[in-house]
Each structure stands twice: as structure tokens, then as C-alpha cells.
Amino acid sequence: MSRSVITVIGKDRIGIVYDVSKLLAENQLNILNISQQLMGEFFTMIILVDTTKCPKTRQEMLDIFAQESQHLALDIRMQNEDLFNAMHRI
Fold first, then answer.
1. Between β-strands 3-11 and 75-80, what pairing exists: parallel, antiparallel or unpaired?
2. What's the CA gap between 88 and 73, in Å, rounded?
3. What value does the mean pLDDT take over residues 8-19?
């Protein structure tokens, strides 16, 4: 199984979870775990996904997330799980 961590940050509004989960489903990224929180007027979400069935390359997905970030007024980023863990190790 290949896993990635997706982070989402943006001004809170109705439909963020829907918009992001729809984008993941369209690209066959399976949500394994999800955490979300409001920080004042900002919405934050961290999603662990299984990328095994995704038909697109990592770079294609990064490009899609960059485009959708602008369209949805969100910051959507994807990192390999191992890289994410290494960066956040104390």
C-alpha cells in the first residue's frame, strides 16, 4: 500500500469537506484517516490516503491539487507519508 498525507487549510465555509473528498474520490484516493479542526475562522484538515488505485502519477496529482487550490480558495498539499513522518519527527 502506498500512502500519502494531504493537508487542507482555508477560510471556513460550507462544503470544504465535500469539495476535497469529491476530488479524492474522482482520483481514486481512498481516505484511511481524517482529522479536521476549526482554528478561529480557519478550517484545517489532515487526511491519510491510500494512493494504490490512483491512475495518475504523483506529479499529476500535485498539479491537480495546485489547480484546485486556486479554484476552491484552499491550500491543498500532498506529501508521501514517509516524508511527512520524517519532517515531523522530534
1. antiparallel
2. 26
3. 98
